[in-house]
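User: quick one, sequence for these C-alpha coordinates?
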Protein backbone atom coordinates (compact mmCIF):
# COMPACT_ATOMS: atom_id res chain seq x y z
CA UNK A 1 0.00 0.00 0.00
CA UNK A 2 2.79 2.43 0.99
CA UNK A 3 4.81 1.63 -2.12
CA UNK A 4 1.78 1.83 -4.41
CA UNK A 5 0.78 5.23 -3.05
CA UNK A 6 4.19 6.73 -3.74
CA UNK A 7 4.55 5.08 -7.16
CA UNK A 8 1.08 6.18 -8.25
CA UNK A 9 1.72 9.70 -6.97
CA UNK A 10 4.96 10.02 -8.98
CA UNK A 11 3.17 8.66 -12.03
CA UNK A 12 0.30 11.12 -11.63
CA UNK A 13 2.85 13.92 -11.37
CA UNK A 14 4.50 12.65 -14.58
CA UNK A 15 7.89 12.30 -12.89
CA UNK A 16 10.00 9.35 -14.00
CA UNK A 17 12.99 8.66 -11.79
CA UNK A 18 14.43 5.90 -13.96
CA UNK A 19 18.13 6.40 -14.57
CA UNK A 20 18.30 9.44 -12.27
CA UNK A 21 20.73 10.28 -9.49
CA UNK A 22 18.93 11.47 -6.37
CA UNK A 23 20.21 13.26 -3.28
CA UNK A 24 18.05 12.69 -0.20
CA UNK A 25 18.22 15.34 2.49
CA UNK A 26 18.39 13.30 5.71
CA UNK A 27 18.09 14.69 9.21
CA UNK A 28 17.80 11.26 10.83
CA UNK A 29 14.15 11.77 11.72
CA UNK A 30 11.31 9.45 10.62
CA UNK A 31 10.30 11.31 7.43
CA UNK A 32 13.72 11.69 5.81
CA UNK A 33 15.01 8.30 7.01
CA UNK A 34 11.97 6.53 5.59
CA UNK A 35 12.41 8.36 2.28
CA UNK A 36 16.08 7.43 2.07
CA UNK A 37 15.33 3.79 2.88
CA UNK A 38 12.40 3.62 0.44
CA UNK A 39 14.39 5.03 -2.49
CA UNK A 40 17.36 2.82 -1.62
CA UNK A 41 15.13 -0.26 -1.87
CA UNK A 42 14.05 0.93 -5.34
CA UNK A 43 17.56 1.41 -6.74
CA UNK A 44 17.58 -1.82 -8.74
CA UNK A 45 13.92 -1.80 -9.81
CA UNK A 46 13.84 1.89 -10.81
CA UNK A 47 17.48 1.97 -12.02
CA UNK A 48 18.29 4.95 -9.81
CA UNK A 49 21.30 5.90 -7.69
CA UNK A 50 20.66 7.31 -4.22
CA UNK A 51 22.92 9.68 -2.31
CA UNK A 52 22.44 11.06 1.21
CA UNK A 53 23.20 14.53 2.56
CA UNK A 54 23.14 15.67 6.20
CA UNK A 55 23.78 19.00 7.92
CA UNK A 56 24.70 19.23 11.60
CA UNK A 57 23.61 22.73 12.65
CA UNK A 58 25.57 22.38 15.92
CA UNK A 59 22.51 23.65 17.77
CA UNK A 60 22.36 20.82 20.28
CA UNK A 61 26.03 20.07 20.79
CA UNK A 62 26.87 16.39 21.18
CA UNK A 63 23.27 15.33 20.57
CA UNK A 64 23.19 16.68 17.00
CA UNK A 65 26.64 15.23 16.33
CA UNK A 66 25.36 11.79 17.39
CA UNK A 67 22.52 12.16 14.87
CA UNK A 68 25.06 12.83 12.13
CA UNK A 69 27.00 9.71 13.12
CA UNK A 70 23.75 7.71 13.14
CA UNK A 71 22.90 8.76 9.54
CA UNK A 72 26.49 8.09 8.46
CA UNK A 73 26.39 4.54 9.90
CA UNK A 74 22.95 3.95 8.37
CA UNK A 75 24.35 4.82 4.93
CA UNK A 76 27.57 2.82 5.35
CA UNK A 77 25.59 -0.34 6.09
CA UNK A 78 23.72 0.07 2.81
CA UNK A 79 26.59 1.43 0.69
CA UNK A 80 24.79 4.74 0.19
CA UNK A 81 27.21 7.60 -0.67
CA UNK A 82 27.06 9.99 2.28
CA UNK A 83 28.05 13.67 2.49
CA UNK A 84 27.72 15.83 5.55
CA UNK A 85 28.76 19.18 6.93
CA UNK A 86 28.91 20.83 10.32
CA UNK A 87 27.71 24.46 10.29
CA UNK A 88 27.86 26.64 13.38
CA UNK A 89 24.30 27.92 13.11
CA UNK A 90 24.40 30.18 16.21
CA UNK A 91 27.35 32.07 14.70
CA UNK A 92 25.60 32.24 11.31
CA UNK A 93 22.46 33.67 12.96
CA UNK A 94 24.49 36.29 14.82
CA UNK A 95 26.23 37.29 11.58
CA UNK A 96 23.13 37.44 9.35
CA UNK A 97 20.39 38.43 11.81
CA UNK A 98 18.08 35.69 10.47
CA UNK A 99 15.72 33.77 12.72
CA UNK A 100 16.82 30.23 13.59
CA UNK A 101 14.45 28.41 11.20
CA UNK A 102 15.28 30.56 8.18
CA UNK A 103 19.01 30.38 8.95
CA UNK A 104 18.91 26.57 9.24
CA UNK A 105 17.05 26.29 5.94
CA UNK A 106 19.51 28.64 4.22
CA UNK A 107 22.48 26.58 5.39
CA UNK A 108 20.90 23.23 4.45
CA UNK A 109 19.90 24.26 0.96
CA UNK A 110 23.27 25.83 0.28
CA UNK A 111 24.93 22.54 1.26
CA UNK A 112 22.51 20.46 -0.83
CA UNK A 113 23.12 22.62 -3.90
CA UNK A 114 26.88 22.20 -3.49
CA UNK A 115 26.59 18.40 -3.28
CA UNK A 116 24.24 18.21 -6.27
CA UNK A 117 26.70 20.18 -8.34
CA UNK A 118 29.69 18.13 -7.15
CA UNK A 119 28.12 14.78 -8.11
CA UNK A 120 26.01 16.06 -11.02
CA UNK A 121 22.75 14.90 -9.42
CA UNK A 122 19.28 15.28 -10.92
CA UNK A 123 16.98 15.60 -7.92
CA UNK A 124 16.99 16.64 -4.30
CA UNK A 125 14.32 14.51 -2.56
CA UNK A 126 12.84 15.79 0.71
CA UNK A 127 10.56 13.98 3.14
CA UNK A 128 7.67 16.44 3.51
CA UNK A 129 4.32 14.68 3.81
CA UNK A 130 0.59 15.41 3.89
CA UNK A 131 0.53 16.56 7.52
CA UNK A 132 3.32 19.03 6.75
CA UNK A 133 1.15 20.33 3.93
CA UNK A 134 -1.78 20.99 6.27
CA UNK A 135 0.50 22.84 8.70
CA UNK A 136 2.10 24.95 5.98
CA UNK A 137 -1.14 26.00 4.29
CA UNK A 138 -2.78 26.95 7.59
CA UNK A 139 0.29 28.84 8.81
CA UNK A 140 0.52 30.84 5.59
CA UNK A 141 -3.18 31.63 5.48
CA UNK A 142 -3.03 32.74 9.10
CA UNK A 143 0.01 34.91 8.38
CA UNK A 144 -1.77 36.53 5.41
CA UNK A 145 0.26 35.10 2.54
CA UNK A 146 -0.92 35.73 -1.00
CA UNK A 147 -0.52 34.18 -4.44
CA UNK A 148 1.04 30.77 -4.84
CA UNK A 149 2.37 30.83 -1.25
CA UNK A 150 -1.15 29.92 -0.10
CA UNK A 151 -0.87 26.63 -2.01
CA UNK A 152 1.69 25.41 0.50
CA UNK A 153 4.52 23.03 -0.35
CA UNK A 154 4.97 22.26 -4.07
CA UNK A 155 5.66 18.71 -5.18
CA UNK A 156 8.41 19.87 -7.56
CA UNK A 157 10.34 23.06 -8.12
CA UNK A 158 13.61 24.05 -9.79
CA UNK A 159 16.71 23.90 -7.62
CA UNK A 160 20.22 24.62 -8.85
CA UNK A 161 20.75 22.66 -12.07
CA UNK A 162 18.05 20.14 -11.08
CA UNK A 163 14.78 19.96 -9.16
CA UNK A 164 13.46 19.41 -5.66
CA UNK A 165 10.83 16.66 -5.40
CA UNK A 166 8.71 15.53 -2.46
CA UNK A 167 7.49 11.97 -3.13
CA UNK A 168 5.82 11.63 0.30
CA UNK A 169 3.27 14.46 -0.01
CA UNK A 170 0.68 11.76 -0.77
CA UNK A 171 1.31 10.15 2.65
CA UNK A 172 0.49 11.05 6.25
CA UNK A 173 2.71 11.07 9.30
CA UNK A 174 1.18 7.83 10.61
CA UNK A 175 1.97 6.06 7.31
CA UNK A 176 5.63 7.00 7.66
CA UNK A 177 5.82 6.05 11.33
CA UNK A 178 4.38 2.64 10.43
CA UNK A 179 6.93 2.22 7.63
CA UNK A 180 9.78 2.97 10.05
CA UNK A 181 8.37 0.44 12.52
CA UNK A 182 7.95 -2.34 9.91
CA UNK A 183 11.51 -1.88 8.61
CA UNK A 184 13.11 -1.38 12.05
CA UNK A 185 14.63 1.96 11.05
CA UNK A 186 14.75 3.37 14.58
CA UNK A 187 14.86 7.07 13.54
CA UNK A 188 16.25 9.83 15.76
CA UNK A 189 13.87 12.28 17.45
CA UNK A 190 14.62 15.99 17.74
CA UNK A 191 13.32 17.09 21.16
CA UNK A 192 12.78 20.63 19.87
CA UNK A 193 9.87 19.29 17.77
CA UNK A 194 7.88 18.90 20.97
CA UNK A 195 8.35 22.49 22.18
CA UNK A 196 5.45 24.90 21.85
CA UNK A 197 7.95 27.70 21.22
CA UNK A 198 7.74 27.14 17.48
CA UNK A 199 4.46 27.93 15.74
CA UNK A 200 4.71 24.88 13.46
CA UNK A 201 4.86 22.62 16.54
CA UNK A 202 1.66 24.18 17.88
CA UNK A 203 -0.13 23.49 14.60
CA UNK A 204 1.27 19.95 14.59
CA UNK A 205 0.24 19.16 18.18
CA UNK A 206 -3.14 20.88 18.40
CA UNK A 207 -4.61 21.95 15.06
CA UNK A 208 -3.85 19.02 12.74
CA UNK A 209 -5.16 16.33 15.17
CA UNK A 210 -8.37 18.35 15.53
CA UNK A 211 -8.85 18.54 11.74
CA UNK A 212 -8.18 14.82 11.32
CA UNK A 213 -10.67 14.07 14.04
CA UNK A 214 -13.24 16.12 12.12
CA UNK A 215 -12.37 14.31 8.87
CA UNK A 216 -9.93 11.43 8.56
CA UNK A 217 -9.30 12.42 4.93
CA UNK A 218 -8.25 15.99 5.83
CA UNK A 219 -4.68 15.52 4.55
CA UNK A 220 -5.92 14.30 1.15
CA UNK A 221 -8.33 17.23 0.89
CA UNK A 222 -5.60 19.73 1.75
CA UNK A 223 -3.26 18.19 -0.82
CA UNK A 224 -5.93 18.37 -3.50
CA UNK A 225 -6.64 21.98 -2.52
CA UNK A 226 -2.92 22.73 -2.79
CA UNK A 227 -2.60 21.25 -6.27
CA UNK A 228 -5.76 22.90 -7.61
CA UNK A 229 -4.79 26.27 -6.19
CA UNK A 230 -1.28 25.97 -7.64
CA UNK A 231 -2.73 25.19 -11.09
CA UNK A 232 -5.20 28.07 -10.90
CA UNK A 233 -2.49 30.43 -9.73
CA UNK A 234 -0.14 29.44 -12.56
CA UNK A 235 -2.86 30.12 -15.14
CA UNK A 236 -3.82 33.49 -13.64
CA UNK A 237 -0.17 34.56 -13.42
CA UNK A 238 0.25 33.80 -17.13
CA UNK A 239 -2.73 36.04 -17.85
CA UNK A 240 -1.34 38.76 -15.56
CA UNK A 241 2.05 38.65 -17.28
CA UNK A 242 0.35 39.31 -20.61
CA UNK A 243 -1.39 42.40 -19.13
CA UNK A 244 1.68 43.74 -17.33
CA UNK A 245 3.23 45.45 -20.36
CA UNK A 246 -0.14 47.15 -20.97
CA UNK A 247 -0.33 48.75 -17.52
CA UNK A 248 3.38 49.54 -17.00
CA UNK A 249 4.52 52.87 -18.39
CA UNK A 250 8.00 52.69 -16.91
CA UNK A 251 10.19 49.90 -15.56
CA UNK A 252 13.70 50.52 -14.27
CA UNK A 253 15.96 48.96 -11.69
CA UNK A 254 14.29 49.49 -8.30
CA UNK A 255 11.38 51.41 -9.84
CA UNK A 256 8.13 50.77 -11.71
CA UNK A 257 5.30 53.11 -12.75
CA UNK A 258 1.73 51.94 -13.39
CA UNK A 259 -0.96 53.69 -15.43
CA UNK A 260 -3.89 53.59 -12.99
CA UNK A 261 -6.67 53.87 -15.61
CA UNK A 262 -5.25 50.94 -17.56
CA UNK A 263 -4.73 48.98 -14.35
CA UNK A 264 -8.36 49.42 -13.28
CA UNK A 265 -9.58 48.27 -16.70
CA UNK A 266 -8.37 44.69 -16.17
CA UNK A 267 -10.10 42.02 -14.05
CA UNK A 268 -9.59 42.26 -10.29
CA UNK A 269 -7.90 38.82 -9.95
CA UNK A 270 -5.35 39.98 -12.55
CA UNK A 271 -4.92 43.33 -10.79
CA UNK A 272 -3.75 41.56 -7.63
CA UNK A 273 -1.36 39.36 -9.58
CA UNK A 274 0.07 42.27 -11.56
CA UNK A 275 0.94 43.86 -8.22
CA UNK A 276 2.55 40.57 -7.21
CA UNK A 277 4.61 40.51 -10.43
CA UNK A 278 5.82 44.06 -9.79
CA UNK A 279 6.80 43.16 -6.22
CA UNK A 280 8.61 40.02 -7.49
CA UNK A 281 10.56 42.23 -9.89
CA UNK A 282 11.54 44.84 -7.31
CA UNK A 283 12.37 42.57 -4.38
CA UNK A 284 15.41 40.27 -4.61
CA UNK A 285 13.77 38.20 -1.88
CA UNK A 286 10.16 38.66 -0.85
CA UNK A 287 10.01 39.90 2.78
CA UNK A 288 8.30 37.46 5.11
CA UNK A 289 6.36 40.38 6.63
CA UNK A 290 4.75 41.22 3.27
CA UNK A 291 1.16 39.96 3.27
CA UNK A 292 -2.12 40.05 1.38
CA UNK A 293 -3.07 43.05 3.55
CA UNK A 294 -0.41 45.11 1.80
CA UNK A 295 -1.86 44.14 -1.58
CA UNK A 296 -5.31 45.15 -0.35
CA UNK A 297 -3.95 48.54 0.80
CA UNK A 298 -2.52 49.14 -2.67
CA UNK A 299 -5.84 48.18 -4.28
CA UNK A 300 -7.64 50.70 -2.07
CA UNK A 301 -5.08 53.40 -2.94
CA UNK A 302 -5.50 52.72 -6.67
CA UNK A 303 -9.28 53.08 -6.46
CA UNK A 304 -9.24 56.09 -4.15
CA UNK A 305 -10.77 59.30 -5.58
CA UNK A 306 -7.87 61.28 -4.10
CA UNK A 307 -5.12 62.23 -6.55
CA UNK A 308 -2.29 61.39 -4.17
CA UNK A 309 -1.37 59.02 -1.37
CA UNK A 310 1.40 56.67 -0.33
CA UNK A 311 2.08 53.34 1.40
CA UNK A 312 5.28 52.15 3.05
CA UNK A 313 6.06 48.49 2.35
CA UNK A 314 8.75 46.33 4.03
CA UNK A 315 12.45 46.79 3.20
CA UNK A 316 12.19 50.38 2.04
CA UNK A 317 9.69 50.00 -0.82
CA UNK A 318 7.51 53.09 -1.25
CA UNK A 319 4.25 53.10 -3.20
CA UNK A 320 3.15 56.60 -4.22
CA UNK A 321 0.02 57.64 -6.08
CA UNK A 322 0.20 60.84 -8.10
CA UNK A 323 -2.76 61.66 -10.33
CA UNK A 324 -3.08 58.86 -12.91
CA UNK A 325 0.09 57.00 -11.98
CA UNK A 326 1.23 54.68 -9.20
CA UNK A 327 4.98 54.72 -8.51
CA UNK A 328 6.84 51.83 -6.88
CA UNK A 329 10.29 52.88 -5.63
CA UNK A 330 12.67 50.60 -3.76
CA UNK A 331 15.23 52.11 -1.36
CA UNK A 332 13.49 55.44 -1.81
CA UNK A 333 15.36 58.43 -0.45
CA UNK A 334 14.04 61.99 -0.49
CA UNK A 335 15.43 64.06 -3.36
CA UNK A 336 18.07 66.53 -2.27
CA UNK A 337 17.68 70.11 -3.41
CA UNK A 338 20.28 71.55 -5.78
CA UNK A 339 21.60 75.00 -6.66
CA UNK A 340 23.94 75.74 -9.56
CA UNK A 341 25.30 78.95 -11.11
CA UNK A 342 26.27 79.40 -14.75
CA UNK A 343 28.36 82.53 -15.23
CA UNK A 344 28.85 81.96 -18.95
CA UNK A 345 27.88 79.65 -21.79
CA UNK A 346 28.07 75.95 -21.08
CA UNK A 347 26.28 72.74 -20.12
CA UNK A 348 25.10 71.26 -16.86
CA UNK A 349 23.88 67.72 -16.06
CA UNK A 350 21.10 67.79 -13.46
CA UNK A 351 20.38 65.07 -10.85
CA UNK A 352 17.17 64.10 -12.70
CA UNK A 353 19.21 63.03 -15.74
CA UNK A 354 18.39 66.08 -17.88
CA UNK A 355 20.96 68.35 -19.48
CA UNK A 356 20.85 72.17 -19.45
CA UNK A 357 22.73 73.87 -22.30
CA UNK A 358 23.22 77.65 -22.57
CA UNK A 359 24.50 79.26 -25.81
CA UNK A 360 24.25 82.40 -27.95
CA UNK A 361 22.62 82.15 -31.40
CA UNK A 362 22.03 84.57 -34.25
CA UNK A 363 18.90 84.65 -36.35
CA UNK A 364 15.60 82.86 -36.02
CA UNK A 365 15.13 79.70 -34.02
CA UNK A 366 12.01 77.62 -33.52
CA UNK A 367 11.24 77.01 -29.84
CA UNK A 368 9.17 74.41 -27.99
CA UNK A 369 8.66 73.39 -24.37
CA UNK A 370 12.24 72.14 -24.17
CA UNK A 371 14.01 75.34 -25.12
CA UNK A 372 13.68 79.09 -24.55
CA UNK A 373 15.00 82.21 -26.29
CA UNK A 374 15.99 85.09 -24.04
CA UNK A 375 17.37 88.54 -24.69
CA UNK A 376 21.17 88.55 -24.58
CA UNK A 377 21.06 91.30 -21.97
CA UNK A 378 19.77 88.86 -19.29
CA UNK A 379 21.93 89.35 -16.19
CA UNK A 380 24.35 86.53 -15.30
CA UNK A 381 25.01 84.30 -13.51
CA UNK A 382 22.01 82.19 -14.38
CA UNK A 383 20.71 80.20 -11.40
CA UNK A 384 19.46 76.61 -11.87
CA UNK A 385 17.87 75.36 -8.67
CA UNK A 386 15.02 73.40 -7.15
CA UNK A 387 11.86 75.20 -6.12
CA UNK A 388 11.61 77.37 -3.03
CA UNK A 389 8.60 78.27 -0.93
CA UNK A 390 6.75 81.23 -2.40
CA UNK A 391 8.24 80.92 -5.90
CA UNK A 392 6.24 82.95 -8.47
CA UNK A 393 6.65 83.46 -12.22
CA UNK A 394 5.37 86.30 -14.41
CA UNK A 395 3.81 84.48 -17.38
CA UNK A 396 3.24 85.99 -20.80
CA UNK A 397 -0.19 87.52 -21.23
CA UNK A 398 -0.86 87.52 -17.51
CA UNK A 399 -1.19 90.38 -15.09
CA UNK A 400 0.77 89.68 -11.96
CA UNK A 401 2.59 86.48 -11.09
CA UNK A 402 1.48 82.86 -10.62
CA UNK A 403 2.67 80.48 -7.93
CA UNK A 404 5.03 77.82 -9.22
CA UNK A 405 3.38 75.27 -6.94
CA UNK A 406 0.02 76.01 -8.59
CA UNK A 407 1.55 75.40 -12.00
CA UNK A 408 2.82 71.99 -10.86
CA UNK A 409 -0.69 71.13 -9.68
CA UNK A 410 -2.38 72.38 -12.86
CA UNK A 411 0.08 70.44 -15.02
CA UNK A 412 -0.46 67.33 -12.86
CA UNK A 413 3.24 66.90 -12.15
CA UNK A 414 3.75 63.96 -9.72
CA UNK A 415 4.67 65.12 -6.24
CA UNK A 416 8.03 63.31 -6.16
CA UNK A 417 9.02 64.90 -9.50
CA UNK A 418 8.30 68.43 -8.27
CA UNK A 419 11.08 68.13 -5.71
CA UNK A 420 13.84 67.97 -8.34
CA UNK A 421 12.22 69.96 -11.16
CA UNK A 422 14.60 72.77 -12.19
CA UNK A 423 13.76 76.44 -11.91
CA UNK A 424 15.90 78.89 -13.95
CA UNK A 425 16.34 82.48 -12.74
CA UNK A 426 18.57 85.43 -13.56
CA UNK A 427 21.10 86.84 -11.08
CA UNK A 428 18.35 88.93 -9.44
CA UNK A 429 16.23 85.85 -8.69
CA UNK A 430 13.62 86.59 -11.37
CA UNK A 431 12.21 83.28 -12.67
CA UNK A 432 12.84 83.05 -16.42
CA UNK A 433 11.63 79.53 -17.14
CA UNK A 434 10.21 76.36 -15.63
CA UNK A 435 11.71 73.95 -18.21
CA UNK A 436 9.16 71.84 -20.03
CA UNK A 437 6.25 73.71 -18.45
CA UNK A 438 6.01 77.51 -18.52
CA UNK A 439 7.99 80.46 -19.92
CA UNK A 440 8.10 83.93 -18.44
CA UNK A 441 7.46 87.31 -20.08
CA UNK A 442 11.22 87.47 -20.75
CA UNK A 443 11.08 84.78 -23.44
CA UNK A 444 11.11 85.65 -27.16
CA UNK A 445 8.90 84.12 -29.83
CA UNK A 446 10.36 81.96 -32.58
CA UNK A 447 10.13 84.89 -35.05
CA UNK A 448 12.67 86.94 -33.16
CA UNK A 449 15.95 87.61 -34.88
CA UNK A 450 19.28 88.98 -33.82
CA UNK A 451 21.52 87.81 -31.00
CA UNK A 452 19.66 85.71 -28.43
CA UNK A 453 20.39 83.46 -25.52
CA UNK A 454 19.17 79.91 -26.15
CA UNK A 455 18.66 77.51 -23.25
CA UNK A 456 17.72 73.88 -23.96
CA UNK A 457 16.52 71.24 -21.51
CA UNK A 458 16.80 67.65 -22.79
CA UNK A 459 17.19 64.12 -21.49
CA UNK A 460 20.84 63.08 -21.46
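Assistant:
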Amino acid sequence: MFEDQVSNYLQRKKVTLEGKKILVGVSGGPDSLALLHFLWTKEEEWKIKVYAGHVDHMFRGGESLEEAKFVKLFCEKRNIPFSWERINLPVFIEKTGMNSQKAARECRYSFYEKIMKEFNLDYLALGHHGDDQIETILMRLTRGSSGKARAGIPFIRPFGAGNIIRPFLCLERDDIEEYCKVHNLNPRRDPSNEKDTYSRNRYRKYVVPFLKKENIHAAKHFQRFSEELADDEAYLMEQAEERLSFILVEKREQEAVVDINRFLSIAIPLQRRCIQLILNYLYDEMPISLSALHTEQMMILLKSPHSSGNIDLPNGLKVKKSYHYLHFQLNFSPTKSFYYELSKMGELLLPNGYNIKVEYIDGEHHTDNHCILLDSSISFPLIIRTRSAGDRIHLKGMNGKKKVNRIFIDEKIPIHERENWPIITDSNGEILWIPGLKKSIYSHSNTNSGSNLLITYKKQ
